[in-house]
């Protein structure tokens, strides 16, 4: 168990310390420990008169930066360099194995067809049928556009208006043969 001792302080100082302690930590001991740690870490003495606060804060920042640089160098030595060396040794083993195997194996169409499974063959067959259907659809669209270009709108004086198709009979017979 911790030993507690007393310190004699002026009432005004004690009151200010209590108010400050309530804002920063749950008890007085922790507040005092934090204050002591701050003075030790920053190297600032409470007796120093800081005439130029910007200069003082700059000095404190430089001290903290020196600590951060030292910390990063330590992390690099203890963690990063050994990890990098382990990964390099692993990749060296992989590179040696990959060099032994050829990167590209040439195969003929017959070998490729022979190695396909039944489902791959069906997929190829359906793909070919799909491509043919797409070509037929494009041709049909072109023909329909040509037919629509040959339509003319006739406005009739008596009766309903209508469209007239101006194409020769042979062309209609060709279209019938393709679709039937």
Explain what this protein looks like in three dimensions:
With 180 residues, this protein is mainly alpha-helical. It folds into three domains: 9-45; 49-98; 135-180, no CATH class. 71% of the residues lie in helices and 4% in strands. It is built from six helices and two strands, in the order αααααββα. The protein has helices at 11-24, 28-42, 53-100, 109-115, 118-149, 169-179, and strands spanning 151-154, 162-165. It is elongated and about 120 Å long. The termini are far apart. The model has no long low-confidence stretch (mean pLDDT 81).
Helix content: over 70%
In order across it, which strands form the biggest sheet? Answer: 1-2
How many separate domains make up the residues? 3
Main beta sheet: 2 strands, antiparallel
Overall average pLDDT: 81
Q: What's the helix count?
A: 6
